[in-house]
Design brief:
Layout: H1 3-11, H2 13-32, H3 37-49, H4 51-69, H5 79-89, H6 103-121, H7 130-145, H8 147-157, H9 179-182
Helix pairs in contact: 2-3, 2-4, 3-4
Length: 183
């Protein structure tokens, strides 16, 4: 970050506050000497232009100096053994997936369920479907049941004697006397 960028950021209080909060997160790394050279330059430029962050850095330096002055406390020789014993005495926590023997099995079961759901949602395309043959069999049975009617139709449609019959009588005119009406 250049000094010009800092001046532009100083004009907008909200942006400055967000930028200073981000710098504060990097400040501890900078003070410990763990910051990368690029980050180190950016932090130094920001500290040169921001008095609030400079004061915060001085406070961190004072706290780190006080911590450095404290003597190092070493754990007792029995500490490791007692800690391991306490950890071993704790009951094993079983999580949600604790009943599964391995993560591979959990993945396999999940994949199987997903594949089953996917296959069930696919449209069914069959050529030799037994259900369709049952429907076709039903239609064949109905046709066999209606076979005598079809045979009679065939006989009647090709019966030449019917074509030689006289035409049906025409409708009678009102007031006309016919043989049928005299009786």
């Amino acid at each position: 970050m250049r000094a010009e960028g800092n001046e532009a950021q100083m004009s907008d209080p909200e942006r400055t506050t967000n930028y200073c909060a981000a710098m504060e997160a990097k400040l501890v790394e900078y003070l410990d000497g763990r910051a990368k050279p690029i980050e180190r330059r950016a932090i130094e430029e920001h500290l040169a232009g921001c008095s609030a962050c400079r004061n915060r850095a001085e406070d961190f330096r004072a706290v780190l100096g006080a911590l450095d002055d404290l003597p190092m406390i070493s754990p007792s020789p029995a500490f490791d053994a007692s800690l391991r014993a306490r950890i071993a005495a704790e009951p094993a926590r079983r999580g949600l997936w604790g009943w599964l023997p391995s993560p591979r099995l959990a993945f396999a079961v999940t994949a199987l369920v997903a594949m089953s759901i996917w296959m069930a949602s696919m449209p069914r395309i069959t050529t030799n479907d037994p259900a369709m043959s049952g429907v076709a069999g039903e239609a064949d049975f109905r046709m066999i049941r209606d076979l005598p009617v079809l045979e009679n139709y065939e006989v009647l449609s090709t019966f030449d004697a019917l074509s030689e019959l006289p035409a049906p009588p025409t409708a009678a005119v009102p007031g006309e006397v016919t043989n049928e009406t005299r009786e």
